[in-house]
Design brief:
This protein has 218 residues and is an alpha+beta fold. The protein has three helices and twelve strands. A hairpin with a 2-residue loop joins strand 8 and strand 9. The protein is globular. The relative contact order is 0.21.
Length: 218
């Protein structure tokens, strides 16, 4: 599948062979295991979101499931920038700092989900940036807003999220109103803090820094 002129993906065999290469903003995206959900072995720093305590090891080889046994949901995550700072939420379930995001509803466009999730979780109104050819119409075909990259994230054994990543800026200066059912609190993080923060996972720092740079650009 090709998204624009800068993307390709290949799928072969098990999920560990899945690769995404989407746009210059996210060239590093080869991620069958994401270090924020659960632990599997000494080489992975993953946290489980279910009933097990944080850091408890899951049974060895729990991800070596047949492809037919793996379920996947499409999600959208939005890195929101205002005045050179990035907005993050302390996620109640996962217990870490994340940008707003969630499942794409049936019949919903990914770009609509990206904006809706920000509104529902933070109260912020945003405009997506880095659209590529998004918004154009080519004959009878509408071009959607392109995500800056797509991540494959293990949520629990046998279940993954295909996460479409967007960058956005706020449309006004209204304060955030955090949805306490989803997050304990929100924070605005500047570039220097984000680059050195030990309590923010590496993928969030990397994409956050790229979102800040994108918001500064022409």
């Amino acid at each position: 599948m090709t998204i624009g002129s800068q993307a390709w993906l290949s799928i072969s065999g098990m999920t560990t062979a899945l690769e995404f290469f989407i746009s210059p903003e996210c060239p590093f995206v080869y991620r069958t295991l994401q270090p924020r959900y659960f632990r599997l072995n000494p080489h992975l720093d993953l946290r489980h979101t279910g009933s097990r305590s944080q850091g408890e090891r899951l049974p060895s080889g729990s991800l070596h499931l047949p492809e037919s046994a793996v379920t996947r949901d499409f999600t959208a995550t939005t890195f929101v920038v205002r005045n050179d700072v990035l907005f993050l939420l302390w996620h109640n379930k996962i217990e870490t700092w994340l940008p707003p995001g969630g499942h794409i509803h049936a019949g919903e466009l990914p770009e609509q989900a990206a904006v809706r999730e920000v509104r529902e979780e933070s109260g912020l109104e945003v405009r997506l940036i880095k659209a590529g050819d998004g918004g154009q119409t080519w004959g009878p075909v509408k071009v959607l807003h392109q995500p800056v990259c797509i991540l494959l994230e293990d949520i629990e054994p046998g279940h993954q999220h295909i996460d479409l990543i967007y960058f956005a800026v706020t449309v006004d200066e209204a304060p955030a109103e955090v949805n306490l059912r989803e997050a304990r609190e929100g924070r605005w993080v500047d570039k220097a803090t984000l680059a050195q923060a030990e309590d923010i996972h590496e993928d969030i720092r990397l994409l956050g820094l790229r979102a800040l740079a994108a918001a500064e650009g022409p």
